[in-house]
């Protein structure tokens, strides 16, 4: 049985296509998260409320200008374990449709990225360069490697088991499903 996306998912994908037109050649960026997982699977497998994108810190101003150019209000988030570290910029629309997760290069071989529960995770640069070009619902975009997505999903599962937040059960179940898809 083929998955039928809801209107919000179709809207997110349409708005993602518009964002790509604005940021395409302006700076280095790659898509991660559920949209990338489904693109690797070659089809939509579930609804997506947002799109997660990685950008380098030195491109942050260009990323924010893309949001401004599209009329999206946005908000910078500092890490709860280090208030001096801006770790993501997210649209401040009711749906919080897009987020730019910020990366820092560590020499020529590694990069570092932080997430809400994780401060400064380090990965090999080969997880994001060279990019893999994917297509989902007619939208073509650069994505992180499958290996990177698997590592992220494994980390989310570990955090879920450690903290057991009831409101995140669906995210945990999606992580298990994503690993099978990859």
Short description:
This protein is an alpha+beta fold. It contains five helices and nine strands. A hairpin with a 6-residue loop joins strand 4 and strand 5.
Protein model, in words:
The chain contains 5 helices and 9 strands, in the order αβαβαβββββββαα. 37% of the residues lie in helices and 32% in strands. The protein has a single domain (7-145), classed as 2-Layer Sandwich (Beta Polymerase, domain 2). It has helices at 7-23, 33-41, 60-69, 146-163, 169-181; strands spanning 29-32, 51-56, 74-79, 82-91, 98-106, 110-115, 118-124, 132-136, 139-143. The longest helix has 18 residues, at 146-163. Strands 1, 2, 3, 4, 5, 6 and 7 form a 7-stranded mixed beta sheet that branches. It has a two-stranded antiparallel ribbon with strand order 8-9. It is of the alpha+beta class and 182 residues long. Helix 4 runs antiparallel to helix 5 (169-181). 29% of the residues are buried.
């Amino acid at each position: 049985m083929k998955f039928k996306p809801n209107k919000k998912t179709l809207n997110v994908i349409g708005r993602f296509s518009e964002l790509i037109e604005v940021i395409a050649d302006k700076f280095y960026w790659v898509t991660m998260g559920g949209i990338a997982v489904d693109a690797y699977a070659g089809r939509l497998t579930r609804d997506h409320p947002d799109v997660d994108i990685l950008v380098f810190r030195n491109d942050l101003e260009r990323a924010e200008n893309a949001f401004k150019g599209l009329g999206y209000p946005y908000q910078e988030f500092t890490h709860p374990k280090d208030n001096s570290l801006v770790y993501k910029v997210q649209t401040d629309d009711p749906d919080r449709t897009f987020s730019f997760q910020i990366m820092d290069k560590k020499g020529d071989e590694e990069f570092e990225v932080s997430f809400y529960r994780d401060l400064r995770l380090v990965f090999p640069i080969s997880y994001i360069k060279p990019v893999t070009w994917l297509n989902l619902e007619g939208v073509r975009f650069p994505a992180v490697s499958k290996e990177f997505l698997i590592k992220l999903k494994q980390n989310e599962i570990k955090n879920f088991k450690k903290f057991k937040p009831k409101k995140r059960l669906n995210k945990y179940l999606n992580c298990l499903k994503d690993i099978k898809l990859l």
